[in-house]
């Protein structure tokens, strides 16, 4: 098993001829890399299965590449097992496997959707023994090695720019505290990681669960630091939870503040106003948390003036980290359905929240790219480390003249 997000070795060193089936998980920006892997596997005669929060929403495009045999929708643990059983049969009956798409006689077959997995505790812990765990030590949290964990699935929020609700469902399902503690102990004692990132979309949706988990970490005397996502309204209403989290090693919280433009918050499906967002930042600062705040530039009703208001607001809030993104219509989102006829370049690599990919009613591509750069420059130019970070951002997301010229051509011609 290989995690090519952290293992930057050559994909060419994978001996696909040694395998009968190759499974690939991908998101939108890594889709073309996934196709290159699929193509190499098909050349060696492998059956190729793809899944993740992109292929299932563009299954027709994926299957029409002739590089993929099956697309798995949503949670794949049970679906993949049943599919492998059918592949082992001389004449597999794939149509009885729920939650897959495949081609038959030139037609795309979509089997009925599989129900969500209700009891997540019945799933085994991630098979980390099949991975090179040292690859994850390249990422640090302070001076500690950090690796991710997922403790729940599903999102009742249904934000218009996010596909999580469509992928995992709107019902929130969580693992039990003993199950989570067992995984933390495995990471701590077996793999020697003393920091973890809880990457659930809704880690703090149940404040009592978080408090019970924090108490378990304290009782087991686990010296770990942790990072997690949370929501503005949860933070404001649950300060005792925050205090318990701090005692258990929580250091940093990611919150989506999104915009200082009230109509945009409503458009995004957010359940808070600017005043509540400011109170959340204040509560986190009072309790000693590092704050990782995210902002979305270019809401459908926004003008240049509105975007500048968000940039000034972010500076005023003065969180430790400010992540500025351009509104991006990912497949599977309500936003995608709303603007898909306005997407002027459907090159999935550029769906990275750093490029405007649809024709905006009020802001041009060039202007919004400048506003994104301006946001980062104004926010991070206060320190030398911040200035270096901005330069890395420009390089990593190809925010150079060539990209601007190419996108400008697509905007006016394509």
Overview of the molecule:
There is one protein chain. The chain is an alpha/beta fold and 414 residues long. The chain has 2 domains: 11-110, Cobalamin-binding domain (Rossmann fold); 135-412, Alpha-Beta Horseshoe (pyruvate-formate lyase- activating enzyme). It contains 15 helices and 14 strands. The strands form 3 sheets. It has a 7-stranded mixed beta sheet with strand order 6-7-10-11-12-13-14. The chain has a 5-stranded mixed beta sheet with strand order 1-2-3-4-5, with helices on both faces. A two-stranded antiparallel ribbon has the order 8-9. The relative contact order is 0.08. Mean pLDDT is 91; it is low at 407-414.
Question: Could you write a compact summary of the structure shown?
Answer:
With 414 residues, the chain is an alpha/beta fold. It is built from 15 helices and 14 strands.
How would you summarize the topology of this molecule?
Layout: E1 21-25, H1 31-43, E2 47-51, H2 59-63, E3 70-72, H3 77-88, E4 100-104, E5 107-110, E6 140-141, E7 144-149, E8 152-153, H4 164-168, E9 173-174, H5 177-190, E10 195-198, H6 207-219, E11 225-230, H7 232-237, H8 239-247, E12 250-258, H9 262-268, H10 274-286, E13 290-297, H11 304-317, E14 321-326, H12 334-339, H13 365-380, H14 384-396, H15 401-412
Parallel strand pairs: 1-2, 2-3, 7-10, 10-11, 11-12, 12-13, 13-14
Antiparallel strand pairs: 3-4, 4-5, 6-7, 8-9
Helix pairs in contact: 5-6, 6-8, 11-13, 13-14
């Amino acid at each position: 098993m290989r995690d090519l997000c952290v293992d930057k070795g050559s994909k060419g060193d994978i001996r696909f001829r040694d395998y009968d089936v190759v499974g690939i998980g991908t998101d939108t920006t890594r889709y073309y890399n996934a196709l290159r892997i699929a193509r190499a596997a098909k050349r060696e005669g492998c059956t190729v299965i793809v899944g993740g929060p992109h292929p299932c929403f563009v299954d027709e495009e994926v299957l029409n590449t002739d590089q993929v045999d099956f697309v798995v929708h949503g949670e794949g643990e049970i679906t993949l097992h049943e599919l492998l059983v059918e592949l082992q049969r001389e004449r597999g009956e794939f149509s009885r496997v729920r939650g897959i798409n495949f081609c038959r006689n030139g037609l795309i077959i979509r089997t009925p959707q599989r129900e969500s997995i209700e009891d997540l505790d019945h799933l085994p812990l991630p098979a980390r023994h099949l991975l090179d765990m040292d690859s994850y030590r390249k990422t640090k949290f302070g001076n500690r090695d950090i690796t991710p964990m997922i403790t729940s699935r599903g999102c009742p929020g249904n934000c218009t720019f996010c596909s999580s609700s469509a992928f995992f469902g709107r019902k929130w399902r969580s693992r039990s505290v003993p199950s989570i503690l067992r995984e933390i102990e495995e990471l701590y004692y077996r793999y020697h990681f003393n920091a973890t990132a809880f990457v659930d979309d809704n880690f703090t949706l149940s404040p009592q669960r978080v408090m019970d988990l924090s108490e378990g970490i304290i009782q087991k005397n686990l010296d770990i630091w942790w990072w997690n996502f949370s929501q503005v309204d949860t933070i404001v209403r649950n300060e005792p939870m925050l205090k318990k989290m701090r005692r258990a090693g929580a250091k940093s919280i990611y919150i989506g503040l999104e915009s200082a433009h009230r109509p945009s918050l409503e458009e995004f499906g957010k359940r808070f106003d600017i005043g509540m967002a400011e109170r959340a930042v204040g509560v986190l600062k009072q309790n000693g948390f590092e704050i990782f705040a995210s902002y979305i530039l270019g809401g459908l009703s926004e003008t240049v003036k509105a975007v500048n208001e968000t940039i000034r607001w972010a500076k005023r809030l003065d969180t430790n980290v400010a992540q500025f993104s351009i509104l991006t219509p990912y497949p599977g989102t309500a936003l995608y359905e709303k603007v898909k006829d306005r997407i002027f370049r459907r090159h999935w690599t550029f769906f990275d929240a750093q490029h405007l990919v649809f024709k905006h009613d009020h802001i041009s591509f060039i202007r919004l790219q400048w506003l994104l750069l301006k946001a980062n420059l104004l926010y991070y130019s206060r320190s030398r480390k911040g200035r270096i970070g901005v330069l890395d951002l420009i390089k990593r997301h190809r925010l150079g003249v060539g990209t601007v010229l190419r996108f400008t051509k697509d905007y006016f011609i394509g």
